[in-house]
Design a protein that fits this description.
single chain
C-alpha cells in the first residue's frame, strides 16, 4: 500500500507540474495592438512589471497552485485512508494526521502568499 501511495503522489506531482508549466495565452491582446499609440499613459499601456515583480509574481502564483493541488490530493488520500481504516485505531490516527498536516500546510502556504504580497505592495 505504501508503494502505491508513493507512486500515486509522484504521478500527481508530475501531472500538476506539467499543467503549471503550460503558458497561458494572452486573451484580447490583438485588440490592444494599437491602443498605446494614442494614449500611452493609460492603465493598459503603463508597464508596472519591473524585473523583480515580473519574475517573482508568476513563480509565486505557480508554486501556490502546486501546493494547493498537492494539499487537495493529500486531503483526499487522508479521507480514503480514514474510510478504509476499518476501525483500526492506528490507521484512523494516521489518516487524521494526514488530513491535519495537509490543512496546516495549506494554511501556511496561503499565509506565506499573503505576507509576500503585502511586502511587495509596501515596496
Amino acid at each position: 500500500m505504501k508503494k502505491f501511495q508513493t507512486l500515486f503522489a509522484a504521478f500527481i506531482l508530475v501531472a500538476v507540474s506539467a499543467f503549471a508549466l503550460v503558458p497561458a495565452s494572452p486573451v484580447g491582446a490583438a485588440a490592444l495592438d494599437g491602443a498605446c499609440v494614442n494614449n500611452a499613459d493609460s492603465a493598459v499601456c503603463v508597464n508596472k512589471d519591473d524585473t523583480t515583480g515580473g519574475l517573482v509574481g508568476p513563480l509565486i502564483n505557480t508554486l501556490l497552485f502546486i501546493v494547493g493541488a498537492i494539499s487537495v490530493v493529500i486531503i483526499i488520500i487522508g479521507g480514503v485512508l480514514y474510510v478504509i481504516s476499518g476501525g483500526n485505531s492506528g490507521s484512523v490516527t494516521r489518516a487524521k494526521n494526514t488530513v491535519t498536516y495537509a490543512v496546516v500546510g495549506l494554511l501556511v502556504a496561503f499565509l506565506a502568499y499573503a505576507i509576500v504580497n503585502w511586502v511587495f505592495k509596501l515596496f
